[in-house]
Amino acid sequence: MAPKRPNGAGAFPKPVDSPALKQPDPSALYAALDLGTNACRMLIAQPKGSQFHVVDSFSKSVQLGAGLERSGRLGRASMTRALQAVRVCRQKLDRHGVTRMRLVATEACRRAVNAKGFLKDVERETGLVLDIIEPEEEARLAVVSCAPLVSTRTEQLLVVDIGGGSTELVWIDLSSVPKQERPRAIMRLHAGFHPQASPFPAAKVVDWISVPLGVATLRDQFRDVENDAARFALMSWFFEENLAEFAPYKDEQTRAGFQIVGTSGTVTTVAASHLGLKRYDRTKVDGLRMTSDQIDTVIRGYLTLGPEGRRRDPRIGQDRQALIMSGSAILQALLRCWPTDQLSVADRGLREGLLYAQMSADGVLEDGPF
What's the average pLDDT block by block, 10 residues per block, for the chain (370 residues)? Predict the structure, then answer.
């Protein structure tokens, strides 16, 4: 005899109303778009205390600079990929009703002879106007984005932003700034590397340089070298040769009070490999400190894997496997020039700097600690 079905069995459950997520006020939102040599990235955020809360984001590899070294022009396929990515960004901006935004293009558009025509096409197709920013502003924004990671014990700071088409290095002297004010002094650089007289203690920019070699452009210059290890060594030494004009290049630095902050996909990928992450986790990577020996171990591991092994490594990923060795060559050159006990990993960069700069200029960030 079949068991008797209890009363109410199989009936639809009574619906439970869940509170809808409160949408942020569009007037409080800011957006930053970075169309780089390798990727198109955007963040939409709202101020929260002394920092900001990300509401939406977008990142897509577009390889805008593919073939630029050879032809001096943006390729048709590259421009199509980039335009499609910017269209997605426009949809997100419209969805959130964002009106405060800064949209920029960097090294590939600085160098390509047809870049202005391409950006006019972007404006016509999407209604978005992208500014081609100068290397100094790009370097300045990268520095501002890293302000929360600057230690109060840091007296000499080197910020390195390894991009797709260029690498920016900024050397900052914080020794005359009170310890608790050092991160905030970095933030104030959004107004310029040589700001006007201010009542606040100022960070001094000793020197900065924009090297026209990033992970994509450096790889393209040595594409004809077949041996993997030889190509890596040549890229690293060639990059170091391009640092000769950087003022602190030949100065020996004391390790106490010296901090290097690295911001790029290369640095975060090396950090993820060091941690053995099966899935990338920004909360574990951003702010991580790695020793020179730990970084060297990861890079040696990449060389041991070879091209095929790196292609299959999930921590590197399909989009980055072709660029990881040129980025590692840059990173190794920097650590050879400035041996340091630790490198601070920043999963942040131009987009975050653009947001901080806008919010700081509008006075919507609080003065509390980072």
Answer: 52 47 80 94 92 92 90 95 97 96 95 96 97 92 90 92 92 91 85 70 89 92 93 96 81 76 93 92 93 94 93 81 92 88 90 91 71
Q: pLDDT tens digits for 168-226?
A: 999 999 999 999 888 888 888 877 887 665 667 788 999 999 999 999 999 999 999 99
Tell me the DSSP string of 55-85: EEEEEEE--TTTTHHHHSS--HHHHHHHHHH
What's the sign of the alpha-carbon dihedral 138, 144, 149, 150? positive
The answer on 249 and 231 residing in a single domain is: yes
Distance CA 8, CA 369 (A): 57
> Tell me, what CATH number does 36's domain have?
3.30.420.40
Regarding whether 182 and 93 lie in a shared domain, the answer is: no
CB neighbour class for 38 (10 Å; exposed up to 12, middle 13-18, buried from 19): buried
Query: In this structure, are 71 and 145 located in the same domain?
Result: no
Q: What is the CATH number of the domain that holds 278?
A: 3.30.420.150
Pull the structure tokens for residue 104: 């920029």
* Ordered strands of the 100-105 beta sheet: 51-61, 39-48, 30-35, 100-105, 131-132
Count of CB atoms within 10 A of residue 330's CB? Answer: 28
* Distance separating the N- and C-terminal Cα atoms of the chain: 70
Q: Which residue has the tokens 């000499």?
A: 156
> What pLDDT is attached to residue 134?
93
Distance CA 241, CA 247 (A): 13
The pair of three-digit structure tokens given for residue 199, joined into one six-digit string: 């009542």
CA atoms of 294 and 220, how far apart (whole Å): 28
Q: How far apart are CA 318 and CA 327, in angstroms?
A: 15
